[in-house]
Amino acid sequence: MNHLTAAEMIAIKRDGGELDRQMIEDIVLGITDGSLSDAQVGAFAMAVRIRGMKIDETVLLTDAMRRSGTNISWQLDGPVVDKHSTGGVGDTVSLMLAPMLAVCGAFVPMISGRGLGHTGGTTDKMESIPGYTTAPTDDRFHEIVRTIGCAIIGQTNDLAPADRRLYSIRDVTGTVESIPLICSSILSKKLASGTNVLAMNVTTGGGAFMSNLQDARELAKTITDVARGAGVKCHSLVTDMDQPLGSSAGNALEVQYALNYLQGTREDRMHQVVIALGAIVLVDSGLASDTASAVLALEKSLISGHALEKFAQMITALGGPVDFVESSAKYLVKAPVLRNVTADASGWVSGVKAKEIGMTVVVLGGGRTQPGAPVDWSVGVTQVSSVGDKVEPSTVIAQVHAASEDAADIAEKRIRAAISVSENSIAPRPVLIGD
């Protein structure tokens, strides 16, 4: 029995010590039942952010957080799979990939998070669809996954509740960029949700929490090792987030982007990541014999229109409009002010600072600076240029969607600072970096 106080346990980690199983159990219990204050949880997160954790500690933390709530079990006639990203800007992969995988025979109970720092949250995006509930009853969630094959919902109250509280406090205490905390946050939810196969998208670059490639590779390896140790088939893919993955950032705007993708308008960088992650899942789950056949199956799900149909069915099943796919413009809320930002000079786009684009969305009201704060689903940025694009002074390099002219002014300044133009053509970094 551990008789250390919370302050003493935090101090051990603060001073670079290793926490044992009982200490971690006590800390996670205190996070879950509220006996640790927000200040103490923030101090624990900061100590881990600065001092790190050994793999064994991370495994213990992940397991304790998984057991802080219910664990879902599935009785389905196919593999239960999931995909997760460590965060980025303009990253709508989940919205397209869940229905694509369902068409290919997988079951995808995708339990997603809200926006964290400068990155968007899948739950916030889906809630921009009128009527769509990200908090169905357990029975309804199971029924939708069983009959349709996919359901994108938010984290339930009883699924890894320790993570839910820790996640929200990390968001506002500068402790997001921590390999042990990211790993335990992701995997505690995935393990609790009954996932058998997991594809991890570990982003790196200026718009990622792991801006350094070496750190990203370390995170990818840590997640893969911990997941496999828990009996989950897992592969991690490292992808570029120096620039936004897609040309739209903002909640309702990204839903429309995903819909456009499923309907046939596909940007190459986004498509590469969607297909690569989907292929990992199909091969690891046994639904495809090799990568080539997996790619063919995923492409077929798009070309046939079946992935779009699945997306529509999921939206309707979770309370959204029955004609959402056909009439999204009628349902998705629109910002009152649109502002085109044009290039200052001729040349080629040489840099698009993804983090600045993401923070622009936050400043516009599309993200959070306090846990639980509301977000404006309508605001954001579209038509964001990509590195290598040729521009003239009249070329639109981004379009701001804002609640007011004053907000648009601020956003325009941030975007101009984020997008640089050079006299010489520059090739972008490949979006698929490796494992």
From TrEMBL:
Residue span, Pyrimidine nucleoside phosphorylase C-terminal domain: 348-422
Keywords, comma-separated and alphabetical: Glycosyltransferase, Transferase
One GO CC term on file: cytosol
SUPFAM superfamilies noted in UniProt: Nucleoside phosphorylase/phosphoribosyltransferase catalytic domain, Nucleoside phosphorylase/phosphoribosyltransferase N-terminal domain, Pyrimidine nucleoside phosphorylase C-terminal domain
GO molecular function terms attached to this record: 1,4-alpha-oligoglucan phosphorylase activity; thymidine phosphorylase activity
GO BP annotations listed: pyrimidine nucleobase metabolic process; pyrimidine nucleoside metabolic process
Coiled coil segments of this chain: none
Pfam families: Glycos_trans_3N, Glycos_transf_3, PYNP_C
SMART domains xrefs: PYNP_C
Superkingdom, natural source: Bacteria
Keyword Glycosyltransferase included in the entry's annotation: yes
Homology family: Belongs to the thymidine/pyrimidine-nucleoside phosphorylase family.
Record text on subunit structure and interactions: Homodimer.
Name used for this protein in its record: Thymidine phosphorylase
